[in-house]
Amino acid sequence: MSQSHNTRIVLASRPQGRVKPENFRIEEQPIPVPGSGELLLKILLLSLDPYMRGRMDDAKSYAAPVAVNDVMEGGTVAEVVKSNHPDYVAGDIVLSHSGWQSYAISNGVGLRKLNSEAAPLSTAVGILGMPGFTAYTGLLTIGQPKPGETVVVAAASGPVGATVGQIARIKGARAVGIAGGPDKCAFIKNELGFDVAIDHRAPDFANQLKDACPNGIDVYFENVGGPVWDAVFPLLNTFARIPVCGLIAQYNSLDLSGNDRLPALMRDILKKSLTVRGFINREFVDQRPAFFEAMNAWLHSGDVKYREDIVDGLTNAPKAFIGLLDGHNFGKLVIKVA
Amino acid sequence: MSQSHNTRIVLASRPQGRVKPENFRIEEQPIPVPGSGELLLKILLLSLDPYMRGRMDDAKSYAAPVAVNDVMEGGTVAEVVKSNHPDYVAGDIVLSHSGWQSYAISNGVGLRKLNSEAAPLSTAVGILGMPGFTAYTGLLTIGQPKPGETVVVAAASGPVGATVGQIARIKGARAVGIAGGPDKCAFIKNELGFDVAIDHRAPDFANQLKDACPNGIDVYFENVGGPVWDAVFPLLNTFARIPVCGLIAQYNSLDLSGNDRLPALMRDILKKSLTVRGFINREFVDQRPAFFEAMNAWLHSGDVKYREDIVDGLTNAPKAFIGLLDGHNFGKLVIKVA
């Protein structure tokens, strides 16, 4: 891929079930030229996140789908290489939403300048970015963990789950993390300080979860769905809170077979006064300053740690993204574009 | 039934599916004698409410089930006939939770004195009691209707649904009520001022609901479940709120057949940022004073109206309760005990 061209990865076709490499297409185009008031951005880092799976489908959601033949969307860290905008100069580093490509034009709307000396740039799409903010707002505003309560989160070595568990502990709750495989389990228990780590691949996973939650579950931070949900559901306490920020286990297909589990959910929502609430970050935009202040303090004190999984090269993004949906990443998945 | 005895209706057996008359047993016992610090209450009115169906099952819930051979529980309006309690004298009228019987002993805990000149006594178990408070707190605290939004409620001629719709209109929202049969529909539209009334028995019910909600549904106050849920679900807007206070359509059985509707619910909770929250009144006990003040004002101004369905005679309670579960009542169902 020549640096004199813009490499872009577009949605070639909508996936039927599982995402496949042929759903993407890599294109080379001339580097675009910024017009009046515009900037040319060179993408340094691309964030890969599970929500992107939803954008590949043509279904009604809080955000429009990516159109076929359009660049895949995504959060990015970029360097201003040419500026016709009064607020930016060449060399500025910004957080943008430029998608899966190596260059992009911006009119400045939605950009945020980053200070590369304050924190590693990758944290702007990780612990100090969307995943960290999702964990912070979903757990504290919806989950509202109290001291001594039990908080359960899956994908617990991922950027959202890892942060949920650590904030839960800061708030005095017990953190029970679910992850895939012994390495991830060891990491969340030994490095991140979760009280219990459970491998969802274990044959007796549901029993292990039950043993890990002798007082039931007060907060279940739902970011996976699937079999984890079935193990969690009977353990929910009265007044349990369930922030819903992801359902990665069912993104590839909506399995309608098996018993109808809706009546039992509604029954327990009623009998246990459960709160089940989906959310997106823009609901909580006024919490941004508080989030930055708290998270920077926790990072500084060491109360919150994070792990990143950096993959080199934009053209590796499709493969890395497919691996993400299968749980192959270990930490926040970031593509190093340049 | 002799007035020299206490007539009580006990749970004879737990229902298997639908409630049957033989699940109840009528007993005659001596009128109990109050001990030191106790009161003898003569029950005047007994409230019959859908939640009692749940108490007949031996299932975990926010409240313990009624034991077999115990008196069925329920809210009551009673007269103090003998008092060994310093705060009460014979002749006082109180709100109590004395159950399905004609006399009861109380130690005074949980009683509230009623002023029979301020409002009809039956309102203490209706519009100014648990059903009214359920509507008020569930709609305003969880539903949070905004001007111009669409609020849908079923069982809309019942004491909760009727109040939900009227408060929704007071708050500037559109109220779409669902009821069974032309009389109830005419009542909620013409008497209570709902914007639209829809008969859930109509063959094209789901289409009628869709037509009645051209801008979708922002608040669905869930008090029935069943087929109404299926019609409501696809119409829910982003950020819709669903207070869950009852599921009368599924109390008699949990139908697990058919497609699994859980994945679609979770998907929409995520994609539409829905809030689904069960609740019980005791969560909101601090809102009692505000409720009384607001509801008394609305009753006085005529902004809120109510309808009661008074059935004479305690021994008719089982039949009336079974009818309630089938939607045969028309307004708040109250048994006139004495």
Automatic annotation (TrEMBL), chains A, B:
<dbReference type="Pfam" id="PF00107">
    <property type="entry name" value="ADH_zinc_N"/>
</dbReference>
<dbReference type="InterPro" id="IPR041694">
    <property type="entry name" value="ADH_N_2"/>
</dbReference>
<dbReference type="InterPro" id="IPR045010">
    <property type="entry name" value="MDR_fam"/>
</dbReference>
<dbReference type="InterPro" id="IPR020843">
    <property type="entry name" value="ER"/>
</dbReference>
<dbReference type="InterPro" id="IPR011032">
    <property type="entry name" value="GroES-like_sf"/>
</dbReference>
<feature type="domain" description="Enoyl reductase (ER)">
    <location>
        <begin position="17"/>
        <end position="335"/>
    </location>
</feature>
<keyword id="KW-0560">Oxidoreductase</keyword>
<dbReference type="Pfam" id="PF16884">
    <property type="entry name" value="ADH_N_2"/>
</dbReference>
<dbReference type="InterPro" id="IPR036291">
    <property type="entry name" value="NAD(P)-bd_dom_sf"/>
</dbReference>
<dbReference type="InterPro" id="IPR013149">
    <property type="entry name" value="ADH-like_C"/>
</dbReference>
<dbReference type="GO" id="GO:0016628">
    <property type="term" value="F:oxidoreductase activity, acting on the CH-CH group of donors, NAD or NADP as acceptor"/>
</dbReference>
<protein>
    <recommendedName>
        <fullName>Enoyl reductase (ER) domain-containing protein</fullName>
    </recommendedName>
</protein>
